[in-house]
Predict the 3D structure of the following.
Amino acid sequence: VLDYVGRADYQVKIRGFRIELGEIEARLQAQPGVRAAVVVAREAGAGRQLVGYVSGEALDGAALKTALSSVLPDYMVPARIVVLERLPLTPNGKIDRKALPAPDQLVASAQHVAPRTPAEAALAAIWADLLRQPNIGVTDNFFELGGDSLIAVQLVSRIKRDLGHDLPLNRLFELTTVETMAAALGLESETDKRSDDIVAMLDMLKEVELSDE
């Protein structure tokens, strides 16, 4: 059992919950291979989110998030955990929180995959509106973009209202990208079917026009 008594200036409020950043850091540092860890609250498109930074040997941010999910409540699990070769330090040897790179700077260097179909474009537009994030890529992760359980409920409602599809809330934790969501909801096949119907209708109109000549 880890008991942590933190400083007041390392307390933040996220989604209505008061959180001790030091408690999350202690859980991160307890993970195998982690040499140093720090957690900060950053402004995201849809509000503030927790971001963890770690350094160590053979670390994987997604695996660390999974490990934290088993010992911390959902609202205390960082939206992103960034693995760095080393954490920036101040001249007196403490972690320099102000020098930590913004996750968006790191994500910007990753390959952006734009929506390729009308279905993906429709979903990406809903994501962009709710997350207040422009240029949603089809492989971007909903939760890494700042999504949380409250926004997830809104997303399910918007998909039902705008696209006419029911998405169980628990499926959202599996379908975390526009790409997988569009495929799972069958939106791609519906788009293809509508396109086929339009082509068939145009062919019928041409036949009618030819028969009238």
About this structure: Residues 1-6, 188-199 have pLDDT under 50 and may be disordered. The longest helix spans residues 187-212. Residues 49 and 63 are 19 Å apart (CA to CA). The domain at 118-192 is CATH 1.10.1200.10 (Non-ribosomal Peptide Synthetase Peptidyl Carrier Protein; Chain A).
